[in-house]
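note to self: dont lose this again. the chain is below, predicted strucutre after it. 485 aa total, dont forget to put it in the shared folder this time
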Amino acid sequence: MKFLRPIFICLIASSILVSCFEDQDDNLIAASEINDFIWKGMNVVYLYKSEIPDLANDRFSTIEEYNNYLNSFTTPENLFESLIYDRQNIDKFSVLIPNYVEFLQQQQGVSINNGADFLFYLEPGSQTDVFGIVRLVFEGSPADNANVQRGQIFNAVDGVPLTTSNLGNLLNQDSYTLNFADYNDNGTPEVADDSIESNGQSVSLTKINFTKNPVVQSNILNLNSGNVGYLMYTSFNNNFESELNAAFANFSANNVQHLVIDLRYNPGGVINTAARLGSMITGQFNGQVFSKLFYNEDLQSNNTDFNFTNTITGGGAINSLNLDKVYILTSERSASASELLINSLEPYLADVVHIGDITSGKTQASITIFDSPDLTIDGVNPSHTYAMQPLIAISVNKDDVEVPATGIVPDILLRESPRNFGVLGDVNEPLLAAALADIEGLGRGFSTASETPTPVDYTSKDAKFSDRLLIMPENFNFQKSFLLD
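---
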């Protein structure tokens, strides 16, 4: 009950505040309730509460003072941002969710999308012209059915050249046509003389309600040094643990002796699922501490250990490989539970070989909270659709080591580039090739010697939440299930 006490205190204030607005416009009532929810929720769970004076338990001495404070903000977004600690350097991840109905679909891996994920770069020599490259195509999606392939480049949508200013509007449409192009490096390692040249080819895509299976690819490669299992995994989603476990059953049946986990497009997810993946990789540490979470000063009773286990969600037995070494591929988009997996395995395995780019650097965990008495979706306030995903805890490994805020530096630094994108799972794809070379004992002579175009930071409207992997497990319980996303 200690956890709920601050909420119950706030609920008394809530009933008074609502009565003050009974004779006003419904929109004003909703706005007041949204702001009330934002302050209460952040006051209870926010990891950096002690750093924000306005979140202090004794901040307001009267209901009138509290009411005036809430009404001083013109939008819920403004209030939320005022309660974030050092947005540029520390808390880059807490988000306010204006429509939890869409969010609840996306957290299950379901969203309105066409099944193609993209990366974007500035055209060489330009600060405004943009080109995109297909990074991933999900099986059975509209993009897959249209034969869209990883590595295809496009520089226009609906015949309109892509720029930094129109990128969002063009790709947020439910239907559009990608106009393809070719990347010409002119035979030199320098980017400055590269060019993007339209080739006259195109494909039309329409978004549908589509579920992305995060177990994108599971292959077995036969090397002289033994069988290698390769897994492309895009989110720690507990709804797909059976598919993940089945991949490891196949690895085990084929006597996989080396394992490459590809997390380059994995922004995080459920901590429990990360612990289960760690248990599939190993198996010899059942019951030992995998990861820990530490909360704000008011919620220390919620500090939690997550252990290695031998069962998945639903109780099925985990298929473990009992390895003492693993290879993990990352990019700068690898975050949270992906970083937690690396950090949590380090104290146990003889070697965690990390290949790719420096990771995102998100050591904190978060949950989704709703405007309800216990901050879960049960009994949610029907007058608005706002929810929040604030940072609530710090994640550490069994030795209390955090993921650095600057990210985890790989053993082999090798950035993905549109100049040489490669086919996922192919032995010649650069990141996988680096892992296989190390497995075969050919050395670690890989580097980022060649230049790459300048990336453009863009998240499509339909992937706004799913790409950040704001997932909450079904039947969420604050003291038992947590996210790292």
